[in-house]
Amino acid sequence: MTKQESVPVDDVEGHIVILAQRGGFYVFGNGEIATMKSVSMNNLIKGAGSAMEYATINFADGSTIMLKGQSTLRGTAEGAIASSEQTMEIIKSTGRFEGIKGTVSSKIKFLPVEKGEAGSK
């Protein structure tokens, strides 16, 4: 997590809105490495709710792939995020990926937060 801001919403217990920025990297099957930056907005009640995300994948040759996604998040009894189902669509691409189209769907199960950790992994 690069940056994260959580703001409580006072309508029901456990309601928060989170704006987050993340960074990461991909290692592809052909050995190519790319970096990734994403911005997301999460609307959660006790760890369950929805998220919207924009992610940009940057390749060493300057080519990029930008995706927009929606997620449904499920929470635990303790209010942590337990799992996510996400769909993303390519909304822009440059360089050798100019004009590509595509979608991705994923299901994610988060490991439980351990003592001393700030959030899900």
Protein described:
It is a single chain. The protein is mainly beta and 121 residues long. It has one domain (3-109). The chain has no helices and 7 strands. It has a 7-stranded antiparallel sheet with strand order 1-2-3-4-5-6-7, with no helix packed on it. It is elongated. The model has no long low-confidence stretch (mean pLDDT 92).
Task: List the main descriptive attributes of the protein structure presented here.
121 residues, mainly beta, elongated
How are the strands of the largest sheet arranged?
A: 1-2-3-4-5-6-7
Number of domains: 1
Structural class: mainly beta
Question: What is the 3D shape?
Answer: elongated
Gyration radius over CA: 16 Å
User: What is the H/E string?
Assistant: EEEEEEE
Span from first to last CA? 10 Å
The total beta strand count reads 7
Tell me what portion of residues adopts beta-strand conformation.
Answer: over 45%
Helix content: under 10%
Indicate the low-confidence ranges by residue numbers.
none
Number of discrete helical segments: 0
Tell me, rounded to a whole number, the average pLDDT.
92
Q: State the major sheet.
A: 7 strands, antiparallel
